Protein: PrdX deacylase domain-containing protein 1
Organism: Xenotaenia resolanae
Amino acid sequence: MMPHLQDVSGVVTKNLFLKDKKKKGLWLVSACHDRQVNLNDLAKKLGVGSGNLRFADEAIMLEKLKVGQGCATALALLFDKDQSVKFILDRDLVEGGHQMIYFHPMTNAATMGLRPEDLLRFLKETGHEPILESFQ
């Protein structure tokens, strides 16, 4: 994907759909594409305990976000009507001075950009207050 997006003015995201070991919590993580997301560290920050976060099954993602494997995106939070998916957002995406933030628009065959303030407005409208985290 990145060779096709090297000339965009902004930052490209990677998105991870996660569950905890006991399947009680669901999280969507959006981070800068080149950042390491340490699941053990993130689990500790979220209070679910080290080693307790893992990738959620595609069936859960289809049920909650209406997208399949490889298509996770913050934009799919539109379908999480009961706000059961918590949204973790890389702080740099909205505070890093980027003109645009690039996501998949429900399919990994395309990429679209949003201004950081428009992403935050979208999240507010869907009832998903982002949990800001810093990733290295």
Q: What stands out?
A: Residues 17 and 28 are 5 Å apart (CA to CA). The first helix runs from residue 2 to 5. Strands lie at 11-20, 26-32, 53-55, 85-90, 101-103, 112-114, 131-133.
